[in-house]
Design a protein that fits this description.
Rossmann fold; nine-stranded mixed β-sheet; 12 helices; five-stranded parallel β-sheet; GFO_IDH_MocA-like_dom; nucleotide binding; Dihydrodipicolinate Reductase, domain 2; single chain
Amino acid sequence: MIQEKIRMGMIGGGKNAFIGAIHRIAAHMDGLIELCCGALSSNPETAKASGRDLFLPENRNYGSYKEMIEAESRLPQHIRMQFVSIVTPNFAHFEPAMLALDHGFHVLIDKPITFTLEEAKLLERKVKETGLQLCLTHTYSGYPMVKQARQMVKEGQFGTIRKICVEYPQGWLSSASEKEGNQQAAWRTDPAKSGKSGCMGDIGTHAAQLAEYISDLQISRICADLNWVVKDRLLDDDGNVLLKFNNGANGILMASQIAAGEENALSIKIYGEKGGLEWHQEEPNTLKVKWLDAPAQLYRTGHPYLSSFAKHNSRTPAGHPEGYLEAFANIYRNFVLTLSTLHIGGSPSPEMLDFPTAADGVRGMAFIENVVASAHSDQKWHDFKI
């Protein structure tokens, strides 16, 4: 299907940036993408040095994202980048994304999509106006067993969904790491760079997106409790949210970054009339399926009995672990397969189109806004407003 490698530019992700390397590994995993240019830091000297480390051509190793987008737009169609990957902190998402779309480039962007809900809405509107594609890296929706779970729910195998329990405990911010030289902790706990929520904005949004993605439902009402546990921390580092969904189902969402000893223990349980499912990110190849009137089953990645969506996003035979990097790569792969198919005038398959979009980004920002508003209110339940 794909006729040539898709050319990618990158904004952010240079020296000492954790997520940039993850993005590049994911982008290169299937051999479909070429990193052709970059503006890898907001500091021009660091940007240039980072580009040299990655062997970018000197004439396409840019000192700023504005310089890159404008210069690339002047290059011939067969040379210029085709999409840009934005891997900067939250506050630096919106402007480069808008500029890229204005210059005719597709966009892949780290979550949360923007700094504010209003920015997210403007960005979604720009995507619709331009007819270009935007992909949002909600990584956990890329796992094969998550896709298997979603298809089983959509097929009605569990009947009407009644209860959703999702949690994401981490322990890495149990102490004041932001004051001890940890750069990741410093920007993620800084309201000027991260936004109005810390824990819920960083990982609570992942939990909320996973709940909506697998269940094929939308959160309609919330009752939130946010906590600032570590002394003098400026943003929440722990929280609990009661949920109501648009079909009447209820749920619980817990996110914490002060759960000492936890790593990235994202997990979800969903229950319907006839049975339910259970999935754990730290054991991602297994999906546990539970039935009301039959023994529980274990579904495993790599087997022929899985849905087309699970098989489309698997790379190795059963028993060979596929994890975080592969899930990340699935999002990139589906995105560029969609771009390539559209480029030749084709129709992308449902499996290709199965990646988070600007609409998911708007819902993620709305989740943050609504959770913060609910946590600061004396009112018990709040309608989920966008």
